Amino acid sequence: MISPNQVETMIQAALPDAAVQVQDLTGGGDHYQVVIVSSAFEGKSLIQQHQLVYRSVQQAMSTEAIHALSLKTYTPQAWQESGQVAS
What we know:
- This protein has a single domain (4-79), classed as GMP Synthetase, Chain A, domain 3 (2-Layer Sandwich).
- 39% of the residues lie in helices and 23% in strands.
- The chain has helices at 4-14, 46-56, 58-62, 76-82; strands at residues 19-24, 31-37, 68-74.
């Protein structure tokens, strides 16, 4: 089992400027929904953005410590335009 804080730490290690929100969807610590806002996503396709995030958690996913990961990625500008508020 991996905690939401551990998922956040892994992502921030790869994307140091990232604002990361992690939600455990099952309470079991292996299905997560993650919202990431990072300038590293500027100029990248959605697939490329997700690849950056998946690389940061690759080891946890390969051992199935993380079984499922739902991603929502935003550049800072796209996040601002979305009207959502960071929690």
